[in-house]
């Protein structure tokens, strides 16, 4: 389940709320259990973001850091539901299982080159 990497130009072409909405939809597409708490929360957030965009609400997210030192491709395995997933992060951090919402540390991480 590799995530799409956004270029800085792509990020700058959408409003902050639209960007958050795209992240929410992308993350929701990874969930295969529509009853999982994560999926339910993402549906709620997606609905709220759409409503805010329709109303013309704007927010400003913090600027993108220009020189983030490393990106790691992390591999995770959930002992609760046996789901395996991968995700890219700026650190080797815990991640939430897309199926059941449990948090796990990566069992393996690889440095990847920034584009």
Key traits:
3 helices; 32% helix; alpha+beta; 115 residues; three-stranded antiparallel beta sheet; flat
Provide a short characterization of the protein structure.
This protein has 115 residues and is an alpha+beta fold. 32% of the residues lie in helices and 19% in strands. It contains 3 helices and 5 strands, in the order H-H-H-E-E-E-E-E.
Beta-strand share of residues: 15-25%
Order of helices and strands: HHHEEEEE
Give the low-confidence spans.
none
Shape: flat
Number of strands: 5
Strand order within the widest sheet?
Answer: 2-1-5
Subunit organisation of the chains: single chain
User: How far from one another are the termini?
Assistant: 19 Å
Q: What is the average per-residue confidence, as pLDDT, rounded to a whole number?
A: 78
**Alpha plus pi helix count:** 3
Strand count, sense and barrel status of the largest sheet are: 3 strands, antiparallel
Radius of gyration: 15 Å
Percent helix, as a range, is 25-40%
Category by helix and strand content: alpha+beta
Number of discrete domains: 2
Q: Can you walk me through this structure?
A:
By secondary structure, the protein is of the alpha+beta class. It folds into 2 domains: 7-63; 65-115. It is built from 3 helices and 5 strands; from the N terminus they run αααβββββ. The protein has helices at 8-12, 16-29, 37-54; strands at residues 71-77, 84-89, 95-96, 103-104, 108-112. The strands form 2 sheets. It has a 3-stranded antiparallel sheet, with no helix packed on it. Strands 3-4 form a two-stranded antiparallel sheet. The longest helix is centred in the middle third of the chain and has 18 residues, at 37-54. The protein is flat, with a radius of gyration of 15 Å. The two termini are 19 Å apart. The model has no long low-confidence stretch (mean pLDDT 78).
């Amino acid at each position: 389940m590799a995530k799409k990497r956004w270029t800085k130009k792509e990020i700058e072409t959408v409003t902050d709320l639209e960007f958050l909405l795209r992240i929410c939809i992308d993350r929701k597409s990874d969930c295969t259990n529509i009853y999982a708490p994560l999926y339910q929360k993402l549906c709620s957030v997606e609905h709220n973001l759409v409503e805010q965009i329709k109303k013309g609400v704007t927010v400003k997210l913090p600027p993108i850091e220009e020189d983030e030192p490393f990106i790691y491709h992390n591999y995770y395995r959930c002992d609760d539901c046996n789901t395996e997933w991968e995700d890219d992060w700026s650190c080797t951090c815990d991640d939430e299982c897309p199926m059941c919402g449990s948090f796990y540390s990566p069992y393996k991480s690889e440095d990847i080159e920034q584009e």
